[in-house]
Amino acid sequence: MNNRLYGNLIFELSKEGRKGYSLPKNHFGSYEIPAEMKRAEEAQLPECDELTVVRHYTNLSNNNFGVDTGFYPLGSCTMKYNPKINEEMAALPQFQNLHPEQPVETVRGAQALVTLLEKSLCALTGLAHFTFKPYAGAHGELTGLMTIDNYHRSRGDMARKKVIVPDSAHGTNPASAAVCGLEIVEVKSLANGQVDFEDLQRLVAEQGTEIAAMMMTNPNTLGLFETRIPEIAQLIHDCGGLMYYDGANLNPMLGACRPGDMGFDVMHINLHKTFSTPHGGGGPGAGPVGVREGLQDCFPFVSPYQGNYGVMMRAYAYILSLGREHVKEVGPLATLNANYIKESLKDVYELPINTICCHEFVFDGLKDKSTGVTTMDVAKRLLDYGYHAPTIYFPLLFHESLMIEPTENESKETLDGFIAVMRQIAEEAKTDPELVKGAPHDTPIGRVDDVLAAKHPVTTYRQLQAENV
């Protein structure tokens, strides 16, 4: 765009002496600020009129992409529509204006909502108790592992310090185990994407007395249902370990089966994924942890408060909106949408595991490798067509991974539009590969140096000297 207000930083729009505000009259008197708390020089704040500020930030907001503006097929992170009724309920002043330190007798309604949400989650997961203290999914993972560690300690079994993690697992699994002071033991996957049961048997035979738990996602990171999960759970339980369920992929399970019935003892739920609360941008999150009967006394102290209460409210509103009957349709519809896209594109994109998937699936780049067009190129070209790119280069099992996860909310028309664009990009890769390799072409900025941005991020504005401009 040529609009100067769109492309410039707010600091660059600043003109000395311009004001867009007026402060109220001082009713508090004058107080001396200690010298050690004063700035050495005045803060470099932009000086802009109100209209410039409004236009600048409105234009920036129009450039933001979200579920409300377009299709967001981000694999491994369920990015579903957030119904507006959820926001209306969370905005009720009786809830929104609560303070975490106010007397208990004044928050009985809020406490009742937490109790009702717990009952709902127990019914949906097959577990007996939940704690809502964790503030995000990763915090929930850590809380769940600490619960497992506390369980073994309570029995005097101090040797159990190893956690089995599949090689296809989410990266947070080994990270959470390490933060908890546990050792990660990797179990291999078979060519069909499922856990290698024989390799697992070998690990348990060699290290069974040291195994604290096995962490799994079912369906797994490839979007495939682990068909031998009862045998896996039995094997881990027989050696004295517990089963931990990563709730990142819970969405396709709603209405189909429950982790507790599969043999899992502990799990976390990403309320901001499965239960439609706002997701992305660093928060807010919520990662309640559920356990089977008998483990509730092993919950660790991770917070004096009930997590992000507004997220919990939104999740409960979502559950009530769907009701007992329609919540059962979530998983089957998400699975249907994923398989529809997969089957519609597998003739032009490489499908390394050609089988029925659950909520997500993984391509290994374009089928025609001779074009030199990579998964990164495909993802960048999607931006020109107005779609958010799927997750790319994850999982690490395939060289050119492209993970797609439509949710149950998306219509057939939306899916057909996405399929048509993906096919168009595949055709462009053959006829004009440089067009795809140079994408995106219609965004405010082109490709950035991701490594440089990660290693040397510029997080503050510094006024450039005239000679450097």
In brief:
GO terms for molecular function: glycine binding; glycine dehydrogenase (decarboxylating) activity; pyridoxal phosphate binding. This protein is of the alpha/beta class. It has helices spanning 4-7, 50-62, 84-90, 93-96, 108-125, 137-154, 172-179, 197-207, 229-238, 259-262, 271-274, 309-326, 330-345, 375-384, 412-431, 433-437, 450-455, and strands at residues 129-131, 162-166, 183-187, 211-216, 242-246, 266-268, 289-291, 361-364, 391-392, 401-404.
Describe the 3D structure.
GO terms for molecular function: glycine binding; glycine dehydrogenase (decarboxylating) activity; pyridoxal phosphate binding. Residues 161-280 form the Aminotransferase class V domain. This is glycine dehydrogenase (aminomethyl-transferring). Pfam families: Aminotran_5 (PF00266), GcvP2_C (PF21478). This protein has 469 residues and is α/β, with parallel strands linked by helices. It has two domains: 84-327, Type I PLP-dependent aspartate aminotransferase-like (Major domain) (Aspartate Aminotransferase, domain 2), CATH 3.40.640; 331-453, Aspartate Aminotransferase, domain 1. 38% of the residues lie in helices and 9% in strands. It contains 17 helices and ten strands. It has helices spanning 4-7, 50-62, 84-90, 93-96, 108-125, 137-154, 172-179, 197-207, 229-238, 259-262, 271-274, 309-326, 330-345, 375-384, 412-431, 433-437, 450-455; strands at 129-131, 162-166, 183-187, 211-216, 242-246, 266-268, 289-291, 361-364, 391-392, 401-404. A seven-stranded mixed β-sheet has the order 1-7-6-5-4-2-3, sandwiched between helices. The protein has a three-stranded antiparallel β-sheet with strand order 8-10-9, covered by helices on one side. The chain is globular, with a radius of gyration of 25 Å.
